[in-house]
Amino acid sequence: MNRNKAYKIRIYPNQRQTKQINRTIGCCRFVFNQMLAERKEVYERLKADIESLKSYQYKTEKQLKAKFPFLAASSSRALQQSRINLERAYQNFFAKRSGFPKFKAKKKSAESYREPQVNNFLQVRDGRIKLLKLGWVKLAYLPKDFTGQIKSVTVSRTKTNEYYVSILTEQELVLKKRESDDIIGLDLGLTAFCITSKGEFFQPIQATLRRLEKKVKFWHRKLSRQVKGSQRRERTRLKLNKVYEQMR
Fold this sequence. Notes:
Helix content: 40-55%
Number of strands: 10
Radius of gyration: 23 Å
Distance between the termini: 32 Å
Shape: globular
Strand content: 15-25%
Strand order of the largest sheet: 2-6-7-1-5-4-3
Number of helices: 6
Structural class: alpha+beta
Largest sheet: 7 strands, antiparallel
């Protein structure tokens, strides 16, 4: 019996790799928007002719690469995934699982792209991961339980300009037999939310969220008083985004 498990790990790309990741994210967004614009234009033009609308052949990512040569610098599999994402968005819309697909804005849309595994190219070895157009990229760490066949990798950039990979693996599920019937005592107190008989402390999530919410208000007030476009405001914006990331 197999199962899928994902690992999200921070990566440290060098200067060339950072530029390539940023370029690929932008190109994937561009391809998605171009294909969505074409679908909207074709629908308005052919909505009275249902048969022609159903049989219409939309441009592929290969045709867009021929029209826009700069797309060739990005991973072809990542561009292909943009088309697949749009097709899935349409399917979800018609199945009433989501709203109509929207154009991706640079500042509001997810800053990421996905690459499926093909011919075992995506690999992890010696604390590094091998990606298309990037080569070997340094990983912050590798989980001790990391195992299985890599199915896909999603590369993402946060609002604070940190980079991560989400590695989806297929693993063999091994059911472990229970070896102990140890009982752990729990003590609910005032100084700590919960203390176990083994001396472990647990605090409620609500307390952590309240503390982070106070930080958000503080940085928002500071941000509102600073001059737009200034370096101080940019530093404050990054600190605010770091707090938002802790709240996820």
